[in-house]
Amino acid sequence: MATTFKKRAFVTVVTLILIFILLLLQMRLDQLKGEFKKVDELELLPKPEIVKLMVLGYDQLAADILWLRIIQYVGEKAQTEKGWQWFIHTLDIITVLDPEFEYAYQFGGLILSVIATKPVESNRFLEEGMKVNPDKWVFPFLIGFNYFDSLRDYQKAAQYISIASKQKGAPFFLTQFAARLYATAGSPENGIIFLEQVIKSTTDETAREKLETRLKELIIERDINFLGKAVNRFQDIYGYPPQNLNILVEKGIIKFLPKEPFNGYYYLNKKSETVESSSRYERLRVYEKK
Description:
By secondary structure, the protein is mostly helical. 64% of the residues lie in helices and 3% in strands.
């Protein structure tokens, strides 16, 4: 009986201590809310490890409180640079307190990318979210989009979009988007390998036809890159551009002309001095912002 009483008393004391700590934390957050627009007065919350000790095991409850505050901050009309540092720091605390808080990673990453224009910080949280949720296509998709839209690293964009496209529930367009990114990044070979693997696992005939068309377009990109390098080698050796692509074979620059996959042919545009395909007037590229 005495043991039971002691246990109840201990639980009561711990609960009161927790409530007191959370009230202090809430008061500090209220104070911070009024300081968002006062950059010089802004102070960060304690380190995530310290907050974790302060909440005495009530990690998810504390994470929920901070989550409500972070949503309120995003609703403010004006955010300062120090305010965004507070946002990042608080998001760190939330994800330490509740590492499986999927939406915190997703929401935080999206806000940092779209509103704060901080793609590097955005990707850090999205990468963490991807580790916790490896089967969710949205995380590699958002990371890939950051690399594509803000960082302009098309190779990494293609890699992450490829990962996203293989996850359950991923929209079909991601596969085609990845292929375009590989072409834009100048590595159609990787895109060819990627599409060949996807085609093998595709049972839908309509999807297979679209992917096979995109595969052929990537093959054209690969061949044009190959022939373009051969044209440059010819010019380096002879000091003038070749009259046509057949000369490259005659002079031993290449062993043969690759076959155009749409039953067309490759030719040298004398005006632009670039290699082109007779079946495709437009190169396989993503459309970039100017």
